[in-house]
Protein: ABC transporter permease
Amino acid sequence: MLNNWLKIAFINYKKNWLSTIINLFGLTIGLTGFMLILMHWNDEESYEKWNPKKDKIFYFQTHNKKENIYGAAISIPFADRALKLIPEVQDYLLINGSGLGYKMTTTKKTAYQQDGMTVSENFFNFFPFQLVSGNYKNALKGDNTIAISTTTAKNLFGKTNVAGENIKFDNKNFVVTAVYELPKENSQIKPEFIILSYEQMKNDKEMWGNFNYGCFFMLKTGTDQKALQQRFLKDIFEYRAKINAQPSGVTVEKYLELYGPTGSLFTPIDKIKLHAESTWFGKPDFKSIIILFTLSVLIVILSAINFINLKTAQASQRAKEIGVRKAIGSTKLNLVVQFLLETFLICFASYILSLALTEIVLPSFNKFYNKEIVMNDWHVYFYSFLMVAVVTLVSGFIPATYLANFKAIETLKGNFARSRHGVWLRNGILTLQLIISSFFIIGGLIINQQVKYMMNKDLGFNGDQIFQINFNDYGNGKPWLKYERLKTEMAKIPGVENISFSEAPPGTGNQSSSNMDYMNTSIQGRHGAMDYNYLQFIGVKLLEGRWLDPKLSSDTINNAMINEAFVRKFGWTNDQAMKREIRPGFDNKPYHIVGIVKDFNIRSLKSDVEPMIFFHYKETAWKRFGVGNIQLKLKSDDIDGTVKRIKTYWQNKVEPGYPFNSYFIDKQFSKTFENYQKQQTLFTVLNAMVLMVALLGLFALSSLMIEQKLKDVAIRKTLGASDKTLIVGLTKQFLWITFVAVLISIPISYYLMNEWLKDFAYRIDMPVFPYVLSLILLLILTFAVVSIKAYQATKVNLVKYLKYE
Structure:
């Protein structure tokens, strides 16, 4: 019996070769997209899975109910008090700096080493990397110890057994206490060297307001998250509020409302890459993964729809076969199993082809996402095969049941063609397919318009020809003196037009913030320590008041400028703001507002321009230590030559042996668009795939349906119908289906795309054009595809179809 079924299957594949190819092509493309996105998702979910203590380690985030924002940082007193008072907290780890780089000197060589971290001393209790040399006990005890990776050990010493050796950098001698092997698995925490954040932690020990650290807590197994959050609120947040509320002259409740935090969130370490609200290592973007995965599933659904449509359309060709098989005793179950087998063979062949295609496309996909994914995860094979099974059942069971329900007597009499059940089924499924196609067209056009809007939006500053160089060597711990010396010396380089500094350059996203207080009102504002001329330097527009002036000593004491967002947040007018003095949380003195500038974007266009205060870097003593870059405006006549001269000067006279860490500001800011540009590219590719699959399916379906009407065409042509009339008559049904499908897709697309646009602070108004174009484009494509077969039908051989009439 099985052999007979297989023979029948292959005879039908050959007979309907176009449908077979379209089904294979559609399913292969759909499954390939599904596998790639699934591997991408699995790769993102795999971070920190290597850690044997992952079930007990949680990343801590604060929540401010008033602003509804999550913070990724904590102060030391918060963590200390939690460890002392809350039984569920067993330990905590602080991270103060990451991505650090130093020029290190050993007895063997001097080399630059990057990707270091500054942490608290119990780092290896949380991240037990494989120990190669030395030991972890007291590995980070004191300010002159360092633990290094095997890569760093080989780079500096040429071997890994180097515990006890000395390394000199940052004007200090460090002793290597441990050498470790970094995990090969995915991890956001892969430091090439680790040192204790000794001085910083010593200074911040009692500072409740210095949120300078990312924090992991080790909790007891089975800790109740809600109860833990309540303990933090009562024992930590309210305690801090009591300490500070009385000197501030407000109640505890008011203090929490003004300054927060009012809540907390604990995310398991192996979930922070995608599922945390905010982390030290960047904000997760789980929504993009879900969108891409959903779109890949939609393509598979489209392929399944093609399968169902084509199988039901072929029903008339197999009606007599089914009638004969039923007449000789075949049961309905046997017929269903037979048709499911035929579907499975196509699906399984597509699965094999998709595995090969995925392997071919994977290198390009890895390059696109900057990953190193390999096809060695059994989950990918299992879930993709499960998808094949689902497609087999869905796309096979519907037409199989439909065919198996044919009545033997009716089909043998030839009455099947008069049944309208198959027509309604095909039309309904075709409508669903076109709804999905319309959504992809509308979505693709809206995404394209949003990305273009972001790329072309006036950012409020001009980063053209502004070249930034970040410091690696911080000038013997006095970086502001290094900047001031370089400002004088680099002005002599031909092609340099102007020089300035800002701690908050556009595109970096690492600006610090604190409370800004006026009487009983407080807001969160970003810091903008800078040189006098910086705002003019990047072309920001002055709205009210004046610029900072190096001739006025008060401009390095207590004068500051603010942006429009700062004024709006307090609810002032510009005139009111110019008369105010505010107390910023980063200093212990009031600041007088002397100027207001128009808003300009320094972070991403996804976020609103935040309240920001600008002041000279010497105005607040500790801000001098944050002078970490120098920015140069280059003349336009010889930019490449000027950059070469700057690089030569820097590497020979300023930081020999260090990498030349530089970029143009406008190009750096454009990196904030990269994620959305990738979404745009992927949506365009998926859009093309969807249209291709849908149109091929439409062509094959229209071919089969028109072939069933050839006798009608012959009769009408004999009675004098013109070719034009016949083509319109044959295509009219498909055009109506397309029209209805687009109308149904419009509210669906509007809702989904409006939800996507809500993520952007700066967004386009919902355009009408994509909806209209979707309708016109699909009608044109439908007519073009169907009319090809309709035109061929008008050339039918009349004698062939009418000789027995």
The two ends are 39 Å apart (CA to CA). Residues 466-672 form one domain.
